[in-house]
């Protein structure tokens, strides 16, 4: 899937449109059903914090939740609003605003070389070549990939691929970024590196993860269980609740 290619302006920090009250991501009475299988129900949330984590058991509905936030999945019931934009009716604008980083970077890498891969979304958007080159160089430099610009993207290490996937989203300057298990496939060194990168982003981020260390310094953590929100609070409180939930199984 190549949805990240649609992430674009406005840059982080830009006036995102709508009224202040409409800022953030709002879920109103959201539920989701795949075929006959209900996977999320009764979600009423207003997500405004800079760093939000989402944890829960396998199959609890976290990826589905993440995908609702940029319109990759549409709610079966209720509404998801991003800065006042409805994911059902204004999906293109929503995807410009909300970048999405998949768990497996191979799902996002579509061009032969590192630089071409990062440039693709900008090219699609009609960004002029000189600006394109400048933005690509800047983002590759920031993530330690400048020396790999002309290398085959698929030959990068797992950690470098994840950074490339993040670079490909960031170059589009979305105001918000959703990460679906960004460190699951990485070793400890690369997991820490990606955690640091996420921690330093100016964007609002929502991170689905099983890596509880990643949640350090987050503003808010949601615990999802069997498709329902069962805890919502500061990381220490939410993680404690999650551990207890799992210990009782
Ligand atoms: N496209 C789909 N079609 C049908 N069922 C699906 C689809 N995607 C997910 N599901 C089901 O929905 C439920 C929730 O899946 P989801 O991937 O959202 O969970 P998760 O919490 O992210 O799991 P994990 O931690 O294992 O990645 C699971 O039972 C899964 O089998």
From TrEMBL:
Q: Which molecular-function annotation in GO is an example for this chain? A: ATP binding
Q: Provide this UniProt record's keywords sorted from A to Z.
A: ATP-binding, Nucleotide-binding, Transport
What is the official name of this protein in its record? Answer: ABC transporter ATP-binding protein
Q: Which family does it belong to?
A: Belongs to the ABC transporter superfamily.
What sections of the protein cross the membrane?
Answer: none
Sequence ranges assigned to domain ABC transporter in this UniProt record: 25-248
Organism expressing this protein natively: Blastococcus jejuensis
One matching Pfam family is: ABC_tran
Keyword Nucleotide-binding appears in the UniProt entry = yes
């Amino acid at each position: 899937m190549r949805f990240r290619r649609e992430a674009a302006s406005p840059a982080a920090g830009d006036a995102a449109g709508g009224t202040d009250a409409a800022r953030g991501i709002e879920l109103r009475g959201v539920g989701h059903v795949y075929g006959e299988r209900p996977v999320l129900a009764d979600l009423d949330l207003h997500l405004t914090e800079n760093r939000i984590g989402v944890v829960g058991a396998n199959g609890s509905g976290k990826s589905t939740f993440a995908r609702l936030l940029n319109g990759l999945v549409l709610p079966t019931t209720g509404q998801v609003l991003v800065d006042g934009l409805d994911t059902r009716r204004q999906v293109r604008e929503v995807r410009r605003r909300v970048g999405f980083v998949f768990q497996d970077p191979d799902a996002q890498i579509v061009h032969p070389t590192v630089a071409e891969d990062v440039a693709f979304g900008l090219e699609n958007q009609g960004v002029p070549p000189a600006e394109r080159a400048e933005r690509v160089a800047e983002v590759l430099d920031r993530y330690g990939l400048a020396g790999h610009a002309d290398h085959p993207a698929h030959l990068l290490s797992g950690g470098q691929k994840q950074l490339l996937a993040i670079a490909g989203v960031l170059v589009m300057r979305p105001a918000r970024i959703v990460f679906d298990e960004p460190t699951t496939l990485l070793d400890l060194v690369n997991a820490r590196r990606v955690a640091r990168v996420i921690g330093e982003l100016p964007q609002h981020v929502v991170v689905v993860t099983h890596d509880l260390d990643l949640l350090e310094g987050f503003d808010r953590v949601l615990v999802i269980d069997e498709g329902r929100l069962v805890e919502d609070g500061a990381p220490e409180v939410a993680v404690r609740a999650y551990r207890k939930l799992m210990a009782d199984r």
